[in-house]
Structures
1.
Amino acid sequence: SPVLDLAGRRVVVTAGGTREPLDPVRFLGNRSSGKQGVAIAEAARERGASVTLIAANLEVADPAGCDLRTVSTALELRDAVREAAVGADVVVMAAAVADYRPATVSEAKIKKDPGSDEGLTLELVRNPDILAELGHAAHDGTLLVGFAAETEPDAGRLLELGRAKRRAKNADLLAVNRVGWASGFATDDNAVTVIDGDDTIAAELHGTKSSVAHGILNVVVSKLSSA
Ligand code: C5P
């Protein structure tokens, strides 16, 4: 049986990938399946935490025993996480949040112009960086864990990207993983480096998404008990 080292803790996890609508039938999305975030929610639950899972378009089954909030767009995810983060001990931003959304959402399905074979230009606007907003707001007593999915092949540069990202967003921990066409998303295994607040490596994890989840939570538990 698991050690209940998160008993009495409230953990919020975002998982999946946002979808930004263009019209009633189309969206801009990404390849995040939600597996790693769901694995973290499940692992936190097993370890005794009370877990809120903010789920954006999951391709995996909802985990049992979590308070589930379903969202689709970045703006919906932002509202849900802001509300859930109040008084939380830990917020894990595992969701892949779209950096941009269409400037306007067409009420009718966008049609191609039958009179021309020209392309179509979409105008996009920036979404808020939700993790950075949380990181730069007062968040005493709430440990913030971010993720970075990068395609950088060089391990050293990957680590530097992760460190820079942790600092820019003012997260307490940042889990970096290299993704590509065949790894990271939708797979059952993952390899993650957890960067600590002093830029040191808190953990190097690889294995199933469940074992990576527990490895990340081991770092979280040690930070909570030293706070
Ligand atoms: O900047 P990048 O998208 O690589 O950062 C990834 C981290 O930031 C993840 O933890 C993700 O959930 C979060 N993020 C966010 N809001 C955005 C983009 C990313 O909270 N608009």
2.
Amino acid sequence: LTDTFTLINDVKIPVVGFGTWQTPDGDVAYQATLDALKAGYRHIDTAAAYGNEESVGRAIADSGIAREDLFITTKLWNADHGYTETQAALTLSLQKLGLDYVDLYLIHWPNPVAFRNEWQQRNADTWRAMEEAYAAGKVRAIGVSNFQVHHLEELFKTATIKPMVNQLFLNPSDTEAEIVAFDNAHNILNEAYSPLGTGAIFDLPEVQTVANRLNKTVAQVVLRWSLDKGFLPLPKSTHTERIIENGQLFDFELSAADTAIIDNLHGKFGFHTEADEAKF
Ligand code: A2P
């Protein structure tokens, strides 16, 4: 859990992050984050929209772990796209987290419903504010989430710093080949949210077969597969034993045959579609 990828700006990022989407604010988010930190996770992924930044921040403070040993990500919500809006939203997120800086700040979605006719300009303005926050040391890296190729190409027209990360819905069912290849070509790290397909992976007997053979769990096999693809998985759980389990990925390997079985799950529980994106 202390292994790292290195971003294009030389910032090191632990290869597995603890996901907190759909983790309720309050005691649940507090305890889950604290459990993750006790289990050795050093990378926590939250977002303004998850509504749990305060609880996550409290757990970080109570863990007693030195700030420089942690990697904390949060995200700008859709209502806050724009230059001054981004500045204010980042200030509020830092305040809620109780931090002077975050390690990574992401634009959560490229094309919010509220700004459908002006998303290009909004993203350009947002990005300018994020570049300034980066220069000011309020964030150690900046990036995006849920961006497809055309969203990034548009951003590149005005950006002076390229995104370092693109966080995507990535799992064996949905591997997003086009954007992943584009990101790789631009040295943008692909982070995988919902690496377990928000739990759908547990319904597939194929992975269980591989897990049984390796004496590992389904979650561990799929997270190992995610790492092998060069993704940075962000598994979410609110159960202590699962949180621990999801971090134990470094004492086994998938054979080519195991990998092929998991690769074959493409489409098994659906894709992230434009219709899904249109909701945000
Ligand atoms: P829970 O939070 O109740 O433990 P994803 O990371 O793809 O979003 O998937 C999260 C879902 O998978 C949640 O429903 C979570 O449930 C469940 N989950 C996470 N880790 C495990 C695990 N090791 N075994 C079984 N279910 C898990």
3.
Amino acid sequence: DVFKLTLDTPTYKGTVSCKTGLYINGEWVKPVEGGKIDVMNPAKGQVITTVSHGSEKDVDIAVKAAQKAYKTSWGLQAPGSARGQYLTKLADLLERDLLEFAALETLNTGKPFSVAREDMFASAAILRYYGGWADKIQGKTIETNETKFAYTRHEPYGVIGQIIPWNVPLLMFAMKIGPALATGNTIVMKPSEMTPLTALKFGDLATEAGLPPGVLNIVNGYGQTVGNAIAHHPDIRKIAFTGSTLTGRKIQEASAKSNLKVVSLELGGKSPSIIFDDANLEQTIKWVSLGIFRNMGQVCFAGTRIFVQEGIYDAFIKGFTEAARVLATQTGDPFGEKTAHGSQISKTQFDRVMSYIESGKSAGAKVEIGGERHGNEGYFIKPTIFTNVKPDMKIVREEIFGPVASIIKFKAEEEVIEMANDTSYGLACGVFTENSSRAVRVAHALEAGTAWVNCYTTVEISVPFGGFKESGIGRELGEYALELYTQVKSVHVNI
Ligand code: NAD
């Protein structure tokens, strides 16, 4: 079955389409068990189409296909250079169809078309980057004594399970499949049941690129069924998960209860941005706004807790509120030419974010700007800034995953480091100061996998990304991601 729609919007005119079945063993199939699931356009609050969702049985079929592909046409059978060429080809094809992919992503997520386009460019760049690594995965030779030596091989795991969320659907998909395929693994991928369209469209690119059947399988479905089956499957040797900390715990439990599969987790956050008196005000406001409002706050590393030193406090609030006011004027139709702020992903998320806003209000925090929905259609929430915030409020302690910033005033460096680290999360942080010694000192003192100094949100493909504390296990991106998808074998040789 095929979904097809013609769009005539200010930023995209043309058709978007994708298959709606499960992509298993290089073919589009109907689920053995399972059924149909509605896919929404959150900007309109309307169903766009229905797609298949699978079951435990479908996961099992996909795992068998992936096992066969691993043994016969991928894994140790396909040289790195060949795997690299497939990834490069996939990047080329994605770039060829980039605008259609971006339009499909916008339709399914409500994010501005300009943002979706950037996500698609980044997705293609990631595939190309890992295509470049595929023939550069090398071990070491270790001399042990005069008659013996040993060498290491970085071998793939075999069949990998990958489960991803809805906030940056195709980008997350590319971040997962790029390094896994480059290192020789085969994949059973579950996109978010809410945002499967671009992942499904990618299935056709895999076929067009000539990727051997079974190397990449895409099984759409719910977390409790398809996700759970992947997490428990005895023939999946490794699982890579991105999503909430709550689900991350379930993935680890499933691994412990099944076959001790290796688990890597990219989870939630409650990241601090710290602004010192000597920060460059204009630049800081630009980065801090992006940090919290980009993608409508639906970003794991969003800078949600903003600590501002007392000397710059008033000027910062004034400028930051102005930035949010401008963004509010650019809110609306995701396909609009000037739109920079779109819809939240779903009614559930909309209600959740609004309930956090209400909890902030009733706890005594002051709404500087926003704090309400935008328009009557879809799930738009205005960029929201809270001041008068106390460190024990719910809006400061829990991940909101929406466009809601909480601002806390501070006096001294030691005090702010303590407050910033007072969270179970440790994904990212931002430090804004013109004093380079302080910048480095504070960046090192904060408990986070990524520290941005005088910038935010700049995720580079070549730089590892991942969480401290309950924000995750393992590092994606860069050369580090190759370690996620390989296991080291030591070969001892007696000459
Ligand atoms: P979620 O945990 O609800 O779902 C993520 C994925 O897991 C989905 O595909 C879902 O179907 C699946 N899932 C749900 N229950 C499952 C189960 N019992 N077993 C197996 N799979 C299951 O998260 P979400 O709401 O889709 O995404 C938002 C969360 O993701 C936020 O907490 C955010 O911080 C996090 N996130 C983290 C990163 C990162 O890189 N650290 C990136 C993006 C999003």
4.
Amino acid sequence: MKITVVGTGYVGLVTGACFAEIGNHVVCLDRDQERIDALQNGHLPIHEPGLLDIVLRNAHSGRLLFTSDVNLAVAHGRVQFIAVGTPAGEDGSADLQHVLAAAQAIAERMQEDRLIVNKSTVPVGTADRVRETMAAVLRARGQPASVCVVSNPEFLKEGSAVQDFVRPDRVVVGADDEQAAQSMRQLYAPFMRNRDRLIVMDVRSAEFTKYAANAMLATRISFMNELALLAEKLGADIEQVRTGMGTDPRIGTHFLYAGTGYGGSCFPKDVKALVHTAREAGQELSILQAVQAVNDRQKQVLVDKIVARFGSDLQGRRFALWGLAFKPDTDDMREAPSLTIIEQLLARGAEIAAYDPVALAQARLVLGERPGLHLVGQADAALEGADALVIVTEWKEFRSPDFAHLAATLRQPVVFDGRNLFEPADMQALGLEYHAIGRGAPL
Ligand code: NAD
């Protein structure tokens, strides 16, 4: 099939590359010329394991083309995926300007019928808005071609996006038109060879499903974070509680980890947008409001622990910070807990030496030059002269550090672990003072 994907971010690029990999001819459009230049020169603008090989292979074979030429992109694909950003607007609603701009650009140029597939996360009713926007343009152009808009929310996870895309748990398709649903079945059939995981539903339900899924995942995280605070007060260990709970198949083990709060480009904005949508519909989503409040507080928890240990004035203190990305295996810094922690430590006068295996360049862009903040290229270098180590992201390379070296290099052998990577008893035996999340004795 001939496919166009609008937007070459985490979702658009993975979608385009994976559809090309199974034999489709894909044009990926982005309005960011730098991004397109990088892709045309064989460089990925994002860090995503396994993606570069697929991009290079398919670009080389001529099945994957990158362009900023809207005319070319609209002329190419009978199926046009929209995979542009939908950030939170000021009032918390999803900002649809990029989605509607993409739809408008397609309608202004299309000469034949087009199937519009919306992959961006968008509020219920957006497919109707896209259809109306495009129909108005087509009418004004006197263009008889028609559009059909389907919803195909994306569930991939940054860090394992390629695997998630080629081996999906499910593919949700919202289509009010059987022919459109059939096209989507054909498109995804190569990924469904051992089991059909395509779920067709009405468009509004598909749009809602994406928010419902993210809201549920965010709820699990905030639930565990809140229980972790209580576990500390009660002298219980949230890690043992987690194992005891998660083995119940009705609960399951995923997304039950206490930590420094959820971040990233999806959960914060999607929970906010759903709360906003509900309010507009005259309903308060009280659970999700609590989820947000718990998460905001959780992003402060490591700072609270540091202040409890070193005092509120951190002038003259230096901290090594491991992990800047909002989670491992990505360079995405959007809403990362590290940003809150860095702001607050700097505001209290501390110096920070921060390291991340892949997100340093993004961090430099997002944080800019800050007095007191040093971004360093090696985990060990961050430790030099630091009063304590603060672990914010659970990168694999942090899981088994050289503890003796760590204890010898830090000015004081103190570790604040926002991801519960180690056993408190082991750390104690190693002579390290260990502050984790929800583990045992109160501060
Ligand atoms: P992103 O910010 O990484 O990329 C969006 C890209 O779209 C940018 O390169 C931007 O330049 C481009 N763009 C914007 N408007 C354009 C236009 N009119 N024409 C051409 N290009 C345009 O975004 P993302 O993280 O890939 O997310 C895209 C959507 O998918 C969002 O709605 C997001 O909520 C959703 N989503 C994201 C993830 C994720 O893990 N990142 C997972 C599932 C769903």
